[in-house]
Amino acid sequence: MTNIPEAKLAREAEICYATVAMIIDYDSWHPEHGEVDITMIIRMLKDNAENAQRSIARVARDFPREHPVCPVGSDSSLDYALMTAPDKRDPGLLAKLDAVAGRVLNRKDG
Question: What pLDDT shows up at residue 26?
């Protein structure tokens, strides 16, 4: 599986992004692993759901309100991404994009 669409969308929204992946089974690729049945898969899905909930709760609780800016520049990735001249931009589209790109779309310097 891939999460390139999510990573690209997060970058466009200037959001730092990290993947948390949890394995369900190895039988599709691991030559030394036995067969896996649906009961085992459902059990792993439930365990992974609980692990994910605990992880999200911990991040929400422990993430500092004050923190350094993104070290890879995700928080400013749109600074030079807009090519359309300000007077050529569709106002309706600008309104729709405000939530994710308002910081750069509403700049007075274009």
Answer: 63
